[in-house]
């Protein structure tokens, strides 16, 4: 028996750009024209475009598949097709088993009903029986953290509260396939971590997850395989770290202009012990390989590397000269290579590598490669900020004891 629970076979979907008919006189001929002109489905009419084109993939039982890409690449269209919200124009698809989808915040909620009433409404839409909802009701409310507001009409909820309640219901359907869109981004940090833990539990139960997100750290932590979409087509598919690195290297990297520069950075590569990488564990060792190429004779150069957080704040800065290497000189056409070894004692986050070619004695900058590389740092601990100090905490039991009577109760790592 095949363990494929979800498949798309050469699926395409087209849409029509908005139309405006100023009068009934314009609308009626347009409608008659559509009904009388018989065109094959693969043909595009005026103002039509392909949102997806020739998309094929399979997802196996117990697998977590991520779908990433720029806005407008077709990610949400795929999810809506899988959820049955839309039908494909061409191609075939199949979903085997119970599917639960969290695609839009508040989808399936009635604004005038309370949170309690919407749990029953949304749960029914997702295929749960009334008895099943009653049995899981306390767990849904507890997961959402909305006990205090459960009898409040949801039209008074914030977008974050909508997301909490929507995910709580969807995750308790016990689905064979769970589809999750970018909606988790509206939750706070603690709730996002809670959702990721819940999705890991869903995976361990043997279910399948389709995850669309711009949070590449979450993709790296949750999904073993990733699809990269570009303009409605699959641009790449494979192991998540490899596809994330490709996406960061093409879609997000700023253009590096070298024309007219006497010396410039011609290569910046980030590696781990296995080779080129973009995802690292906190504390893992990384190597930065850099090359400088000269277009004319230059002297007394140094290479500067800087690590910046996602908000452009510099968190680390050093250079070949400050680390004790002598300044180097190049003739036109020559290349200088060096390697920095780093231990990434960083908190969970996204960090960008900045590279500079600098001459210190005259304070001249020859080149600056902005966001030459991007790395994602993951950690099992809930530590925030920039650095990871690898904390441990020891509890000493009940209060009211003197210092001489305190004995460690338990130590948490």
Description:
It is built from 8 helices and 21 strands. The strands form 5 sheets. The chain has a 6-stranded mixed beta sheet, sandwiched between helices. Strands 12, 14, 15, 16, 18 and 19 form a 6-stranded mixed beta sheet that branches. A 4-stranded antiparallel beta sheet has the order 11-10-13-17, with no helix packed on it. Helix 3 packs across helix 4 and helix 3 (115-125) packs across helix 5 (159-171). The longest helix has 16 residues, at 189-204. Helix content is 23%, strand content 36%. It is globular. The model has no long low-confidence stretch (mean pLDDT 84). It has 2 domains: 4-249, P-loop containing nucleotide triphosphate hydrolases (Rossmann fold, 3-Layer(aba) Sandwich); 256-378, Coagulation Factor XIII, Chain A, domain 1 (Distorted Sandwich), CATH 2.70.50. The chain has 413 residues and is an alpha+beta fold.
